[in-house]
Amino acid sequence: MIVGKARIVKCPYCGAKKELMSLVSGNTLRAEYWSDNKMSAPMLPQVSIVQKCPKCGKYYLYYKQKEEYGEDESFERGSDLSYGEWKEAYHQFCQESTTLDKSDWANIRMGLIHAYNDLITGRNDYIPDDFRDMLLPRERPVDVFVASVIGDFVREYDWSTEKNLLLKAELCREAGQFNKSMETLQSIKREELDDYERGMYDDIKMRVEQKDIKVFRIKSVQERRKDAMIKRWEMMAELERQWLEEQKKDPRLKVCKNGHCFKNTEHMCRWCGEQEVVERVEEDAPRTNVVLFVGQRNGQWVLTTDPDIEGKGEQIRKITVEIVGGHKLYYHLDGQNPNPFNNNSIKLDKKNNYWKMANQEM
Ligand SMILES: [Zn+2]
Ligand SMILES: [Zn+2]
Questions:
Q1: Please, where are the H alpha helices in the chain?
Q2: Which of 12, 139, 165, 166 is most buried when burial is the number of CB atoms within 10 A of its CB?
Q3: What radius of gyration do the chain's Cα atoms show?
Q4: Which candidate, 112, 199, 197, places its Cα nearest to that of 147?
Q5: Residue-wise DSSP of 261-284
Q6: 167: how many CB neighbours lie within 10 A of its CB?
Q7: What does the alpha-carbon distance between residue 14 and residue 56 come to, in Å, rounded to a whole number?
Q8: What is the pTM of this model?
């Protein structure tokens, strides 16, 4: 951000001079965007369009004054006008409306709406979203004055110049005109909006349905994606939790259609990957152990009781299989898993007919 020489404005009522900040350059790094069209960026500070004369206390639009620059820089933005002062300014402008055109009025109204929303959200203080939501109840009554200003804005603004009518829908919502807001939304072709606008569209719609009039911070496309991902994870974790609860009701071992055994809390058979459960076996049923060896015979991987099976160097491994009620239950591996076992699970490689071979050998 580079600050230039101060812009000097003269009060049109008493002639008192005031120096205002002017920017040579700035950027929107760490900018926050709000649903009422407000952008606040630490590296792009804005000068308030309405300035209050420090001498006579009257209000004027600074950009309507003659353009003059001083020698030094200034950091004065005149942006600390309270909502009360904005209201006062608004009433003053209404008295002298002949000097103001449509775009001046749009600027003034937008500024007043921002000042009101600044007040009720405390957003200039950079409060985290969640905390702000806690502080601000959704069921706040509509401020009658702001609602009338919004009404005038919506009626008099030239909406044909807007790319889409999201701002109009949003302003109607903030004024508590939910039907008008919804009608406006319906006139927008959602599929023609970009990702960012579509997110905003959905947020406005959701809030209209909830009869919520509060202004909100617009999340970036990245934030939305992150939120959606977290939501999905949470949903999956919850489904898994429910599934486990359900499975724990029956502590018996599961038996797949190929006659293998696996724990009640496991999703699939470790031998063959089957999920379908055709039978149950008591966990404390008598067990016997069979020791199997992994090796190659005639170029095929096999699982066999023959300890002399030819292996692939150090990859040959011993596996202890427990037999429960006539079904194979595998849990113990001697050392690292050999190829073609995957990831320390006993799921056999069907392509090599591996588990079928094991069946044959047993
Ligand atoms: Zn003055
Ligand atoms: Zn199986």
A1: 83-95, 102-121, 129-135, 144-156, 166-174, 178-186, 195-209, 221-248, 354-361
A2: 166
A3: 36
A4: 112
A5: EE-TT-SS-TTT------EEE-TT
A6: 21
A7: 7
A8: 0.68
Report the separation in Å between the CA atom of 327 and the middle of ligand 2, taken as the mean of its atom positions.
10
Q: Is 246 exposed, middle or buried (0-12, 13-18, 19+ CB in 10 A)?
A: exposed
For residue 93, report the phi and psi dihedrals to the nearest 5 degrees.
-65, -35
User: How far does residue 91's CA lie from ligand 1's centre (Å)?
Assistant: 17
Dist. CA 71 → ligand 1 center (Å)? 22
136: burial class by Cβ within 10 Å (0-12, 13-18, 19+)?
A: middle
Tokens standing for residue 164:
């889409």
Model pLDDT for residues 284-342, shown as the tens digit of each residue: 888 888 777 777 777 666 677 788 877 655 455 677 778 888 887 765 555 444 444 43
Could you check whether the bond before residue 12 is cis, i.e. omega within 30 degrees of 0?
no
For β-strands 23-25 and 287-297, DSSP reports them as unpaired
Task: Please indicate whether residue 331 or residue 258 has the higher confidence score (pLDDT).
Answer: 258
d(CA 110, CA 97): 16
Least distant ligand from the CA of 259? 2
Gap from CA of 106 to ligand 1 centroid (Å): 23
* Model pLDDT for residues 30-82, shown as the tens digit of each residue: 888 999 999 988 888 889 999 999 999 999 999 999 989 999 999 889 888 99
- Token pair for 303: 């699982």
Closest CA to 89 of 51, 129, 118: 51
Give the tens place of pLDDT for each residue, 94-140: 998 678 999 999 999 999 999 999 888 878 776 676 776 666 655 56
Asked whether 6 and 70 are in contact (CB, 8 A), the reply is yes
